[in-house]
């Protein structure tokens, strides 16, 4: 099939493009592509405008027009959202890679089939996988009952020995020390050996109207089975 037809260049599925970042993909100068829509409704999510958008602000062809001007200037493209894997990423990644960029994917891990394809075709180089919650709190926090789909992706990435990180967003009203330790135990039991990145809740407008928690996590009670790195 013609790649331009596969790409559906006129479809507005991109909410925004961050043109320059040194933070989102370590050791790589990157841009971030924010795709609309998501198959979760996480209580702490502050990207509700992106998640709920029926149409984005940019067409796929706008992305490639931008990237053509960044060849040799940027190292990588970060695909984020929303949830990027709700869209047909295969032809998009194929074209991005053909332009010489690395690709990092931010994902909740629910679309294991697409993630497998992107990795098998060598279209992506790195993944940031969100571990949203423990099994018993997963549906409460994400408003989905797809915990096992997330585990399928986690297992695949570990078995494949793919280059990826796991990250968890912390709001102390939703997750406590015991929950973080359960997440660590799950990762260790699956054979994950990299760091667990914990990113603090940002006190901005979000789905559940959460405010800054009055609870404070006691880091001394956290497991030392994995290296935990705190962000923001």
Automatic annotation (TrEMBL):
Pfam families, per the entry: Radical_SAM
UniProt KW keywords: Iron, Iron-sulfur, Metal-binding, Oxidoreductase, S-adenosyl-L-methionine
CDD domains in UniProt: Radical_SAM (cd01335)
Radical SAM core domain span: 23-232
Name assigned to this protein: Anaerobic ribonucleoside-triphosphate reductase-activating protein
Known EC number: 1.97.1.-
A single MF term (Gene Ontology): metal ion binding
Cofactor dependence: [4Fe-4S] cluster
Superkingdom assignment: Bacteria
InterPro entries attached to this UniProt entry: Aldolase_TIM, NrdG2, Radical_SAM_PqqE_MftC-like, rSAM, rSAM_sf
